[in-house]
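Quick one - first record:
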Amino acid sequence: MGARFEELAWRETPIGAISLRRRRDPALQVEVYEVKLDDEFLMSSLFPVAEIELARLGLAEMAGDALDVVVGGLGLGYTACTTLSDPRVRSLLVVEAIEDVIDWHRRGLLPFAAGLAEDPRTRFVQADFFAAVAGETGFDAQAPGRRFDAVLLDVDHSPRNVLHPSHAGFYLPAGLRRLAASLRPAGIFALWSDDPPDADFLAALTEVFADARAHVVPFANPLTGGESANTVYVARATG
């Protein structure tokens, strides 16, 4: 392992080997942090725009103060950090299935996410987001049945391209209804997707929520020299 590449953490998990690595990109002259699951890239610090917009677009739909927010999937921390940058946020519950990912942040391995773990509004919960939606307790075992103003989700690649087959049912109307039950009236559910807007998934959202929209989020791709795009879905529960 040379100076241009360092594996900061690695652990075998029930869904595969997850690793965090840092490399120096000689062309861009920047430090790049990447997360891999086995040989598949999950996320990169080169492409944070849509993860940031997931929080911005979701919270922009919220009225009032003292917001209680759930972030599903911690990753590199961009969505969680952007959530905390909104002064209206009173509490942030981060639901992450892999304890090692939480540990990366507690150990300060990600300099651009500094302060996330130390913020008094933040609480990490090591749990399967999808199992929590389907369970009786909900996201917060300390307060079973607790409801939230917003749930921001970034775990799977898209509703059609899931990391584990057990996640697929969440994206159908029955799974989305269980998620909606964890929201306060007029609460927001927002979802990141690597795919273009999906008409079938948008139809499932509109079947369950009062309204739903798909936002295309373009961003510069320094690897191709062109532009790429992700999708952020934002749905509002019945008021």
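second record:
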Amino acid sequence: MPGFDPSNTFPLGDHPVKRLGYGAMQLAGPGVFGPPRDPAAALAVLREAVARGVDHIDTSDFYGPHVTNRLIREALAPYPKDLVIVTKIGARRGEDGSWLPAYSPEALKQAVHDNLRNLGLDVLDVVNLRIMFDTHGPAEGSIEAPLTVLAELQRQGLVRHIGLSNVTPTQVAEGRRMVRVVCVQNQYNLAHRSDDALIDALARDSIPYVPFFPLGGFTPLQSSNLSAVAQRLGATPMQVALAWLLQRAPNILLIPGTSSVAHLRENLAAGDLKLPADALQELEAMGRTTAHP
């Protein structure tokens, strides 16, 4: 299948998954709040993803809330045996759609049970603990208290594996002293390169790094340069951004999201795009302009 070289996999928990997955966040309504405008189209995207070989879907019960998980269950249950569904806890939605921390033991336990119920599962494959000390990005602070709660839910058999999201390298180290951390999910792309050292350190230990917002935070000049490279290669800017991430490190797993079947197919085709040396050099230079201000 185009974009899915069977050998291009990386371990996630106990299972090797293809490095191009799918992120379900955009299946909810505007602002990731409320139902989708077209529920049938959302179901079609999920079914198309799995039909094209996607075996890693990223979601959370606070998308909607409850919306994306219920769509995943409706579209895909009973689930293919090789499908790994990764969810996350640690946040909740305000009535106005705001993103709020949800770290109390009760909130974390409730979130796991909400994910189980809405996905229709007895155990969650991977649960990322999203750290919300700062809603704008990672911020230092001990994660021991919420991670202790999640570790207990793992011991109870409700969670197979634990990951971390929106974390600093210090928090990753703290988490790894407490539990087996099977993935780290942070913002990272050509324009936001602060996790370069963390990605390489995780790669040495065969731990997946899952970047989100592959085009987030680009300046107009960076967007223009990316578009120029994409045009030269006969690709879309998103395809080039995804291809660059795939070539950046072997432990990077991608979860591009979309609510369009056409865009899904375009994103998956990025797995076939091999960036030539001159394009890589140009893109690397673009990233260095903002990676370390």
